[in-house]
Amino acid sequence: MSDSANILRFESFELDTAAGELRRKGDRIKLAPQPFRVLELLVRRSGEIVTRTEIRERVWSDDTFVDFEQGLNFCIRQIREAVGDTAGTPRFIETLPRRGYRFLIPTETAMPAPPRTITRLIVLPFRILRPDPATDFLAFSLPDALTTSLSGLKSLVVRSSLAASRFSAAALDLKTIATEADVDLILTGTLLAAGDEIRIAAQLTDAASGTLMCSHSMQAPTGNIFRLQDEITECLVNTLELQLTATEQKTLRQDVPSNAKAYEYYLRANQFSNDSKQWGAARDLYQRCVEADPCYAPAWARLGRIYHVMAKFISSEIKAEQQRAESAFRQALDLNPDLGIAHKAYAQLEVDLGRAADAMKRLLVRARDAADPDLFAGLVSPLRYCGLLDASVAAHRRAVALEPKIRTSVQHTWFLQRDYERVAKSKIENDPYIVGISLGEEGRKQEAIRALLLLEEKSMTRMGNFARTARKLLEGDAAGSVSAAEAIVSSGFGDPEGLYYLTRHLVHLDQVDACFSLLERIIAGGFSCYPAMLRDPWLDPIRTFPQFSELLDRVKDRSHAAEIEFASLEGHRILQMKL
Fold first, then answer.
1. Mean pLDDT for the chain?
2. For residue 64, what pLDDT band results from cuts at 50, 70 and 90?
3. Closest Cα to residue 267, out of 236, 307, 296?
4. Which end of the chain is more exposed for a tag (fewer CB within 10 A), N or C?
5. Does 168 share its domain with 287?
């Protein structure tokens, strides 16, 4: 916590000189370091004339003296823009021609407000009192929509819908749920369809004591389901007395569907989106949603995600699907620049499009003041692609600290660090190739072969092809493994990290001829994990080739640039890493 000398307040603004941040009503306002230092000097000397000479001596170093006049004018413009001031009719900064500036607003030095207590909440699937095929989908979809909406609040950590679904079929033992989900509050509800109305009774319970904090019953026409979500959200905010920032209030009000049918399409699509066999149905419903309501940003974001996962695991029209995904994400962010689910999902697409550094920057900026586990989980893969493996693991740890049951892609980071023992403990159905290979490295080949064979028989996506590639290798069928790997490569598969696995796999099996064109493709695709390529023993057969040295130098330069960017964005502080 900053001490009292580090917090300067004027009107609704707060200047945290220790953190280098300007805030208004709790919301951070972007201001570059040099304008910030000028503002700090003026605020500390409120009411006094601060001469241009004094500003130069206190803020500018000798090596920037030549640019001082132009630089100071730029800083004052930036400050005025940040606080909503003008030179013609100044409220904050008065210009005294040829002399300097005077800060006009009284300031106070005060202890900062105590950090907001982070409350951990889980929204369980609602219990259906009387089955009705027309509305039963709401039992999962409405709590899922609530979870998404509430996850944008900084004072709440909301457990994922996937974590909540584990408790849907069990008897509601709240203490067990509280322990396993590691939450403070549990929201439960019942749902009843009665004619043209939907009735919901929601209860918010303190997990530790079992005390009922609020109970709220509501009903709405089946054509206005969103009203139920809005009422429950308002009840939660009021009961918990959450002090929402202006941005949070705007977020809760902004994404309101204007079309009742569109919202129904959205909720039905959400129900299908977690099942790969239903991705096509989810995509079609999201499309119908945005056609009915083109201004509903969450639907565009979810549509972008479905396009992306289908491009990665199913579709043969990979580039076209990726283009559709990017268009949908951009539409979502044009409608709502602060939409968290759009930023997280778009960052994963950016990784696959060769823009991992952009994804890293996007998520680090948003994670500065957030307690959102999905943001940190989303950072795991961009950091890995940039070669920042320790940072990737740190992002995973931050995500798990906020959401113990959250899934991240950290297994791939461990794999690239050759921590096969840890990868081998992961679920093979989630990452069949790397888990299968790791089990083999740990001397558990037969166990891996049996599990991979079962996955091949059940999988209808490219995961089954990767499982076959690993299984054939473990069985000693080199030709079969090469054939399986080449089939994936020739299918148009574009995931750079997956292609890297196949490249090292082929080199390991002495298939050197094709590896350099694949490496070119991987690097062009944005995979720049220098530590892995530098030390991977499976690449040893090609280390003496000049082509490999040239490629490795390119990867090193990119990784080094990403490391500099990571440091400039205060990545170590955000991920709580030791320098």
1. 87
2. very low
3. 296
4. C
5. no
Predicted local distance difference test score (pLDDT) of residue 288 = 96
Range of the domain at 17: 4-109
Enter the tokens of residue 135.
Answer: 């509305």
Residues 311 and 334 in one domain: yes
The sign one gets for the Cα dihedral 304, 397, 455, 505 is positive
User: Residue 450: what residue type?
Assistant: R
Which of 292, 323, 353 delimits the end of a domain?
353
**Greatest CA separation found in the chain?**
82
Paired tokens of 88: 């013609």
In 10 A of CB 451, how many CB atoms? 20
Q: For residues 234 and 134, state if they share a domain.
A: yes
Minimal CA–CA distance to 505: which of 535, 541, 553?
541
In a domain, 66, yes or no: yes
Amino acid at the residue 531: P
- DSSP string spanning 331-374? HHHHH-TT-HHHHHHHHHHHHHTT-HHHHHHHHHHHHTT---HH
CATH for 315: 1.25.40.10
CA pseudo-torsion sign 105, 108, 112, 116:
negative
DSSP string, 114-140: PPPPPEEEEEPPPEESS--TTTTTHHH
pLDDT confidence of 325, banded at 50, 70, 90? very high
What is the per-residue pLDDT across 178-236, written as a single tens digit (0 to 9) for each? 888 888 899 999 989 888 888 999 999 988 788 888 888 888 888 788 888 888 888 88
How many C-beta atoms lie closer than 10 Å to residue 222's C-beta? Answer: 17
Alpha-carbon distance of 79 to 74, in angstroms, equals 9
Prediction pTM value: 0.68
Give me the amino acid identity at 441.
Answer: E
Same domain, residue pair 213 and 316: no
